[in-house]
């Protein structure tokens, strides 16, 4: 191990890492999303072609990942706001993080059918 | 009634060999060495130390320096958790070597000891603390009052007013918090948690009149708004100060102007 070791932070540090990673991911998604939507003004046929590729199972899985990232970022964002503005926030940050993770898991299960249902039918028949 | 430890050994029938006669174990200390006169690169060096697990990492460092390798360089002064000179990164986390017991570290595995992050390493575990203390001085960590005359009587304060900033009076300026902060690692210009803690100590002191000035200093682009609430500082503070909470209170005072 030539370099120093990784800092062994706890829940707060890793939730911040995840918040930043998901924030940057969402930014890149929005960037591409603005471009593809703008395409409709340039060439409606090309726009249709691009949107058709979005209906493939691979993109459905990516969409599920996007839902995961946005949900985590949004829920943890509310936690960060509570840490900054609720006077008891810093003391309950860990409990709030586990609440965020719990709600995230529930919503991710709920998102399986709406997001992946179409791809499932396409791959395995209905 | 014997001590619980003896009870246990009795209950098991056979005491572990060597258990009763010697509390000592052999622990490996993996220390990050740096000496600019020898090499521009830092390297890891392992030391085997016979030690009682109830002793502290600082005791192990002393054994190494006094018995194995006199060139090992680190800071310590009080050895009792009050001077703040021996903050270092032990098993990946900032702590005071003099307050960290070997038995709390899983001594079965090598125990890593490194200098704190974000400040320039001068030698082995010693870092250049100047930027840290400069940030501390910049928040004016001393009582400032409007009256220019010598006070003629005590400055009275209610118990509640004193309680308001009690937590942040406990700081020993060890830098464990500031050097645990990812924002500070990336940008040493950030004031850092310790400076904010010590500003908090005066901002919320009813006897002090310069809260407004200190808040303006921390309203800077390198001030409190850089905080990303990672809680590394709160986890690292050997005095148990709720550092992130203090930073949050300063942020809120900047918005509400109530302190
Ligand atoms: C869904 C609603 C959203 C909420 C509630 C939210 C909340 C937050 C909060 C509170 C922060 C500050 C974190 C901190 O101070 O540590 C933040 C940071 C950030 N957000 Fe969001 N956000 C949302 C949507 C988005 C979107 C759509 C994007 C992408 C365009 C995004 C990208 C980012 C980035 C890059 C950061 C910086 C992370 C950092 O500095 O560590 N966020 N978000
Ligand atoms: S706030 Fe705690 S960790 Fe930071 S310098 Fe003071 S005593 Fe050390
Ligand atoms: S040596 Fe003084 S705090 Fe550890």
TrEMBL record, chain B:
It comes from the Bacteria. Its cofactor is [3Fe-4S] cluster; [2Fe-2S] cluster; [4Fe-4S] cluster. The keyword 4Fe-4S applies. Residues 161-183 form the 4Fe-4S ferredoxin-type domain. Keywords: 2Fe-2S, 3Fe-4S, 4Fe-4S, Iron, Iron-sulfur, Metal-binding, Oxidoreductase, Tricarboxylic acid cycle. Pathway: Carbohydrate metabolism; tricarboxylic acid cycle. Belongs to the succinate dehydrogenase/fumarate reductase iron-sulfur protein family. This is Succinate dehydrogenase iron-sulfur subunit. It comes from Streptomyces plumbiresistens. The lineage of its organism: Bacteria, Bacillati, Actinomycetota, Actinomycetes, Kitasatosporales.
């Amino acid at each position: 191990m030539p370099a120093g070791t990784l800092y062994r932070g706890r829940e707060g540090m890793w939730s911040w890492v995840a918040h930043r990673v998901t924030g940057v991911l969402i930014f890149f998604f929005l960037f591409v999303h603005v471009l593809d939507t703008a395409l409709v003004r340039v060439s409606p046929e090309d726009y249709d072609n691009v949107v058709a590729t979005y209906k493939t199972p691979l993109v459905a899985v990516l969409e599920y990942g996007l839902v995961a990232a946005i949900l985590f970022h949004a829920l943890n964002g509310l936690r960060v706001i509570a840490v900054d503005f609720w006077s008891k926030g810093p003391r309950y940050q860990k409990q709030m993080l586990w609440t965020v993770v719990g709600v995230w898991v529930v919503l991710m299960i709920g998102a399986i059918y709406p997001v992946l249902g179409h791809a499932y039918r396409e791959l395995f028949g209905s | 009634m014997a001590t619980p430890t003896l009870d246990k050994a009795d209950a098991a029938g056979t005491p572990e060999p060597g258990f009763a006669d010697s509390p000592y174990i052999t622990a490996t200390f993996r220390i990050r060495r740096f000496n600019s006169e020898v090499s521009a690169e830092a390297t890891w060096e392992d030391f085997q130390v016979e030690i009682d697990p109830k002793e502290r990492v600082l005791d192990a460092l002393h054994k190494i320096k006094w018995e194995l390798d006199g060139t090992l360089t680190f800071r310590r002064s009080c050895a009792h958790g009050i001077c703040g000179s021996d903050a270092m990164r032990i098993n990946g986390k900032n702590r005071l070597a003099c307050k960290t017991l070997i038995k709390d570290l899983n001594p079965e595995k090598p125990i890593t000891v490194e200098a704190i992050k974000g400040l320039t390493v001068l030698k082995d575990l010693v870092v250049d603390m100047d930027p840290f203390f400069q940030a501390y001085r910049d928040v004016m960590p001393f009582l400032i009052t409007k009256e220019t005359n010598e006070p003629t009587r005590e400055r009275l304060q209610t118990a509640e007013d004193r309680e308001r900033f009690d937590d942040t009076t406990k700081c020993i300026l060890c830098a464990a918090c500031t050097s645990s902060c990812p924002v500070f690692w990336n940008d040493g210009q950030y004031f850092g948690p310790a400076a904010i803690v010590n500003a908090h100590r005066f901002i919320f002191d009813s006897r002090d009149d310069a809260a407004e000035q200190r808040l303006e200093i921390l309203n800077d682009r390198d001030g409190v708004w850089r905080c990303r609430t990672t809680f590394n500082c709160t986890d690292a503070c050997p005095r148990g100060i709720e550092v992130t909470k203090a930073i949050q209170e300063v942020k809120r005072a900047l918005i509400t102007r109530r302190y």
